[in-house]
Design goal:
Helix 1 links the parallel strand 1 and strand 2. The chain is an alpha/beta fold. The chain contains six helices and ten strands. It has one domain: Rossmann fold, CATH 3.40.50.720. This is Putative oxidoreductase.
Length: 214
């Protein structure tokens, strides 16, 4: 069995990941979230729930102990600080594999027109989001960092990838595709080790996501 913990488990993306991981019969899940009563999920003997977050060292150590893979679906303006605590805890407890969801645009890697629009809309979050992958990449962990943009509830699981340093493709990412890709990595954990990847839905090129086009 693989033991997998999801940090920030109550978000919509985390739920897409949870749903797909439960399709894998060799996965035991630990879900970490601040308010367990808000989690709308059917009881399952392969799911353990821990109330807390990455700012709670006791809860974090309890969550990470004995895990094979850590998935971070955390957000917030303190993401860099939280990721530092997660990385330090993983290294201390000898848990090596992490899949961390961040955000596209943090390296100014979006196509020029889309990059300008994204900066205008959410540019204030970029410096905060940028701290987290920096912490991970300097660590001893085996990481996969994912950079989606403008998440949608589209049910398509199609995705395209770009490597760090390449110009990003597309303007949006479906949560379903993010869930599928993370589940694929959990199924084969040796995939995409020490890679920092943009992930987006194909055929969504433009100067902004479809929902914002006139």
């Amino acid at each position: 069995m693989k033991n997998v913990v999801i940090l920030g488990a109550n978000g919509r993306t985390a739920k897409e990941i949870t749903f797909r991981l439960l399709e894998q019969n060799d996965v035991n899940l630990t879900l970490v979230l601040r308010h367990a009563e808000r989690l709308n999920i059917l009881p399952n003997n392969r799911i353990k729930i821990i109330e807390g977050d990455a700012t709670d060292p006791d809860a974090l150590q309890k969550a990470i102990r004995g895990q094979n893979i850590v998935i971070s679906a955390m957000g917030g303006m303190d993401l860099g600080d939280k990721m530092k605590i997660v990385v330090d805890t993983m290294e201390k407890m000898k848990v090596a594999r992490i899949i961390a969801i961040n955000a596209g645009g943090i390296y100014d890697e979006l196509p020029a027109q889309f990059n300008s629009w994204d900066k205008m809309m959410v540019g204030h979050t970029r410096s905060t989001n940028l701290k987290a992958p920096g912490v991970i990449e300097k660590s001893t962990l085996e990481y996969t960092i994912l950079r989606p943009v403008w998440l949608t509830n589209n049910t398509s699981e199609e995705f395209q990838l770009t490597k760090k340093g390449q110009t990003y493709l597309g303007t949006e990412t479906s949560r379903a595709s993010l869930g599928r890709f993370v589940a694929d990595i959990v199924k084969s954990p040796s995939l995409y080790i020490n890679e920092n990847l943009g992930i987006s839905r194909p055929h969504t090129d433009g100067d902004r996501p479809a929902a914002y086009r006139m």
